[in-house]
């Protein structure tokens, strides 16, 4: 259906259009190259479409304006970091108010008690700790799991992503062995020593990997979200819980993205019973924050380990973690923004977004499918939803991806780079969704026979 020749020509045209639309961003990028590695403050930022990233001037709600004065509908929302929208009032007020009273003390404020109790209510984990990112929450959870179990290995699912957690950036080879994932540069220890990798939805492989009882923790999302949306088979979570319990392995559920599906992610929705829950990204409305909650049993064992050795806790934490500003931001975000109503409203809009995408798929008879995960939507280049990380990776089509993202961007619609993911927030409107459908239709039409 997709005409590859047309796709090539159109992509070149879009690249030229991108250059002509963004002279001010280009100028800033050239200047930035004088002091920033690759011209950006974070290397992910060069992975957007175009020869250079667009520089942002200002944002509000579900829109932002770049330094060339172009306004965009933002469906990327900082790759989930701003799922609550840009600068929601409740968080803005709380952050400004707390900053006036002080940002960082290495001492708790009353907000921490409120936040701990609220996270406990949502995720059923009894004890909470905080970090400056979800990556760190995962790292700290793994350290505690190793200490508590006295085991060294970690198990992850093939093509997972949990932030830049060294052990998790590993791939499963067809012969069952493990290698560093392509792009995992400078790893401290070869992940084949630290990590076991099995395919998602493969209980047999999971049992085989856990039976030696050398795995400290399984780290997984309740639904894989970083290679499209890959759902668990019915019953897979029960098996996962049963096997981890049977073999004395700590189960860490990473709700960083899946907290877009309910006030307490899938732990709340599906009554999961992990030992640890981790999260971050939008939980403080864009202020860096991560959190990890522990079951009563795991928390008590962790405390014994921390107290058993003077100084051991020094390795777990960070000066700015759980600072007063962050805790005020989390309190406002949980208390006033991420409410039941937030999810009801934005899940309904996500459904409409996917209906729009589906209408384009139907009109041009494309072998694609859409999935929805709460306020998060995704379309993949596979006729049926994928079941494993490998299937999801095989469905990828970078040429097509790049063209669609670039052509959307050139028409004022921002999709999340690296995949066809869109997020709905309270400031996203039906017109924004309709604009995406209209643009997608136009750009698809230009490359089909
Ligand atoms: C599931 C999951 N966990 C953790 C992280 C790490 O988040 P951060 O990069 O904000 O530390 C990510 C990042 O995309 C993620 O997708």
TrEMBL record:
GO molecular function, one term: transaminase activity
NCBIfam families: PRK07046.1
Assigned keywords, A-Z: Aminotransferase, Pyridoxal phosphate, Transferase
Pfam families referenced in this protein's UniProt entry, alphabetically: Aminotran_3
Species, as recorded: Alkalibaculum sporogenes
Protein's name in the database: Aminotransferase class III-fold pyridoxal phosphate-dependent enzyme
Family: Belongs to the class-III pyridoxal-phosphate-dependent aminotransferase family.
InterPro entries named among the record's database cross-references: Aminotrans_3, PyrdxlP-dep_Trfase, PyrdxlP-dep_Trfase_major, PyrdxlP-dep_Trfase_small
Cofactor section: pyridoxal 5'-phosphate
């Amino acid at each position: 259906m997709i005409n590859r020749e047309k796709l090539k020509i159109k992509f070149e045209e879009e690249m030229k259009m991108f250059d002509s639309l963004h002279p001010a961003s280009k100028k800033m990028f050239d200047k930035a190259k004088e002091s920033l590695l690759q011209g950006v403050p974070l290397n992910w930022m060069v992975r957007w479409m175009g020869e250079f990233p667009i520089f942002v001037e200002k944002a509000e709600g579900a829109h932002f304006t770049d330094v060339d004065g172009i306004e965009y509908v933002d469906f990327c929302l900082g790759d989930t970091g701003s799922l609550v929208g840009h600068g929601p009032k409740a968080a803005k007020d709380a952050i400004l108010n707390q900053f006036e009273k002080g940002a960082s003390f290495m001492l708790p404020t009353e907000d921490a008690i409120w936040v701990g109790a609220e996270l406990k209510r949502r995720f059923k984990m009894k004890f909470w700790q905080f970090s400056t990112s979800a990556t760190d929450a995962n790292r700290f959870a793994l350290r505690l799991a190793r200490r508590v179990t006295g085991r060294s290995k970690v198990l992850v699912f093939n093509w997972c992503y949990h932030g830049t957690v060294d052990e998790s950036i590993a791939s499963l080879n067809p012969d069952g062995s493990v290698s560093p994932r392509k792009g995992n540069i400078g790893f401290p220890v070869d992940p084949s020593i630290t990590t076991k990798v099995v395919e998602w939805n493969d209980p047999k492989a999971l049992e085989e990997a856990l039976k030696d009882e050398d795995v400290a923790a399984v780290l997984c999302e309740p639904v894989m979200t970083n290679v499209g949306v890959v759902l668990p088979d019915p019953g897979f979570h029960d098996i996962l819980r049963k096997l981890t319990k049977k073999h004395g392995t700590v189960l860490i559920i990473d709700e960083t993205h899946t907290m877009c599906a309910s006030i307490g992610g899938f732990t709340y929705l599906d009554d999961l019973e992990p030992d640890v829950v981790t999260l971050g990204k939008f939980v403080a409305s864009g202020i860096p924050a991560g959190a990890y909650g522990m079951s009563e049993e795991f928390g008590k064992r962790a405390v014994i380990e921390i107290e058993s050795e003077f100084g051991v806790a020094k390795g777990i934490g960070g000066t700015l973690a759980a600072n007063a500003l962050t805790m005020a931001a989390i309190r406002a975000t949980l208390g006033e923004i991420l409410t039941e109503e937030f999810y009801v409203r934005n899940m309904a809009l996500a459904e409409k977004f996917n209906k729009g995408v589906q209408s384009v798929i139907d009109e041009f008879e494309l072998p694609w499918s859409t999935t929805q995960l709460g306020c998060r939507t995704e379309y993949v280049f596979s006729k049926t939803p994928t079941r494993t990380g490998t299937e999801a990776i095989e469905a990828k089509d970078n040429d097509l991806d790049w063209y669609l993202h670039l052509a959307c961007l050139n028409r004022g619609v921002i999709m999340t780079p690296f995949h066809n993911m869109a997020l709905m927030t309270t400031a996203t409107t039906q017109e924004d969704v309709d604009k995406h459908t209209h643009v997608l239709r136009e750009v698809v039409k230009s490359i089909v026979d």
